[in-house]
Write a structure and sequence with these properties.
The chain is of the alpha/beta class and 284 residues long. The protein has two domains: 89 residues, Leucine Dehydrogenase, chain A, domain 1 (Rossmann fold); 124 residues, Rossmann fold (3-Layer(aba) Sandwich), CATH 3.40.50. The chain has ten helices and eleven strands. The strands form three sheets. The protein has a six-stranded parallel β-sheet with strand order 1-11-8-7-5-6. It has a three-stranded parallel β-sheet with strand order 3-2-4, with helices on both faces. Helix 1 runs parallel beside helix 10, helix 2 crosses helix 10 and helix 6 crosses helix 7. The longest helix is centred in the N-terminal third of the chain and has 23 residues. Bound molecules: NADP nicotinamide-adenine-dinucleotide phosphate (NAP). The site of NADP nicotinamide-adenine-dinucleotide phosphate has 25 residues, from helix 10.
Length: 284
């Protein structure tokens, strides 16, 4: 039986730490960290994420502004808003909720965000900083996973780590963060041959592919730590992860559930990044 990595509980601990930092900052400098959240269109999942971000900002004392733009917003209108927020002194962090409607160029929008306000850490300048290990912000989901490992007392150094998925927002930065912590890292993707055999070598297996219950017990080394990033729907429309929890859990030593594992950490780390941005701006 694996021990459960309780993302809800650990995210609440991170938010408590963030709230204490916000209070301290207010006492020391009289300033409050500020986050602008931009949402374009009516995607229901994006709306839920944005509502949660606002709710948790309020909980920890971060000032937040929402910019809800209609589906037909043009590229130039969106870029003009980003440029305005780049210069707005009470805004330390800018988050443009992805995905954007198809007619908008996500890459251009991300690149328009000032790197010191890029609390998602998606700007190429921040991505490059992560590569060389000299960064202010880490992308929220991989950073949240590192926090889960750290707060569960799971050592990364010297471990065989396998990451399935190589997206820019999860897989690639995840691999880099594990490497920074001296893991020996393999990145797998849709062209990997004999994926199950590679996975069975992993002491720490991080799964971020977006396919419901794809990873089964035969892909898990006995005693491995299994981190499930997936947010999928099963055949009944029920939220589940990329890992078949029922079969993998008896084999693993630690495992994250879905929901209640990685998901809650992503917003907690966004709040943390916003405080980091405010501190950077305070020093300028
Ligand atoms: P993505 O951009 O679609 O990337 C998926 C990756 O999985 C790709 O690298 C793909 O390989 C690989 N892949 C797909 N099928 C595979 C297979 N059969 N075998 C091996 N690799 C395979 O997805 P993402 O944005 O990284 O997200 C992954 C999952 O995490 C999704 O379920 C998403 O909803 C979830 N997610 C959760 C959070 C959270 O806060 N919990 C945050 C972000 C994402 P190729 O590159 O070869 O195509």
């Amino acid at each position: 039986m694996a021990q459960l990595i309780d993302g809800k509980k650990i995210a609440a601990m991170v938010r408590e730490d963030v709230a204490a930092e916000v209070q301290q900052m207010q006492e020391n400098t009289g300033s409050t960290p500020g986050l602008a959240v931009v949402i374009v269109g009516n995607d229901p999942a994006s709306r839920t994420y944005v509502n949660n971000k606002k709710k948790y900002c309020a909980e920890v004392g971060i000032y937040s502004e929402e910019y809800a733009l209609p589906e037909e917003t043009t590229q130039e209108e969106l870029l003009a808003l980003v440029r305005k927020l780049n210069e707005k002194p009470d805004i330390d962090g800018i988050l443009v909720q992805l995905p954007l409607p198809k007619h908008l160029d996500e890459k251009a929008v991300i690149e328009a965000i000032r790197p010191d306000k890029d609390v998602d850490a998606f700007h190429p300048s921040n991505v490059g900083r992560i590569m060389i290990g000299d960064y202010h912000f880490l992308p929220c989901t991989p950073a949240g996973i590192m926090e889960l490992l750290y707060r569960s007392g799971i050592e990364v150094s010297g471990k065989r780590c396998v990451v399935i998925g190589r997206s820019n927002i999860v897989g690639k930065p995840m691999a880099m963060l594990l490497l920074h912590q001296n893991g020996t890292v393999t990145i797998c993707h849709s062209k990997t041959q004999d994926l199950a055999a590679v996975c069975r070598e992993a002491d720490i297996l991080v799964v971020a592919i977006g396919k419901a219950r794809f990873v089964t017990a035969d892909m898990v080394k006995p005693g491995a730590v299994v981190i499930d990033v997936g947010m999928d729907r099963d055949e009944n429309g029920k939220l589940c992860g990329d890992v078949d929890f029922a079969s993998a859990e008896p084999v693993a030593s630690w495992i994250t559930p879905v929901p209640g594992g990685v998901g809650p950490m992503t917003i907690a780390m966004l709040l943390k990044n916003t405080v980091t941005a405010a501190k950077l701006h305070g020093e300028q």
